[in-house]
Amino acid sequence: MAEDMKNKPEEFWKQKLTPEQYHVLREKGTEHPGSGKLLNENRQGDFVCAACGQVIFKSDAKYDSDVPGLIGWPSFSEAAANDAVELKEDTSFGMRRIEVVCKTCGSHLGHLFDDYSSPSNKHFCINSVSLDFKPEK
User: Fold this and answer.
1) What is the pTM of this model?
2) 68: closest CA among 111, 33, 108?
3) Whether 125 is catalytic
């Protein structure tokens, strides 16, 4: 039986993650635009949840958005699989957005927006710090 990552105590995550990862993944923070290590990652491979290792996005779904306000974070047109992420309504800060969370561990990854420049018209605006990259071998 697979390990239940959604019910791990916060102390587990505080020990496993860096302070910046913990802030974004567990406290629903956001990294500064343009600061992420994966913003310009263009190799072939998988983008995995930094908390649990679940494959979240494939490199062929990464693209460069040209929508003002969405530039500065890695952009993806679709998740790696239907069960990779969970979408939740987010009304924080007086806005209506769709939060993207890892379906395996429940960690915050970013938000989903409409985007005319995306191949799917959807824009997964994801924090670099919430992902790790595993290049193809």
Assistant:
1) 0.92
2) 33
3) yes
pLDDT of residue 128: 96
- Strand pairing report for 108-114 and 85-90: unpaired
Q: Give how far Cα 71 sits from Cα of 3, 76, 114, Å.
A: 36, 12, 13
Token duo for residue 50: 């930094």
User: Cβ(38)–Cβ(129) under 8 Å?
Assistant: no
Identify the pLDDT of residue 17: 96
Rounded distance, CA 123 to CA 25, Å?
A: 19
Side chain identity at residue 125, one-letter code: C
Q: How does strand 55-58 pair with strand 62-63?
A: unpaired
Q: What are phi and psi of 93, to 5 degrees?
A: 60, 25
Does residue 1 register a pLDDT over 70? no
SS3 label, residue 2? coil
Long-range pairs, 27-35, Cβ under 8 A, ≥24:
27/108, 28/92, 28/99, 28/108, 29/108, 29/127, 30/110, 30/127, 31/73, 31/127, 31/128, 31/129, 32/72, 33/71, 33/72, 33/73, 34/72, 35/72, 35/128
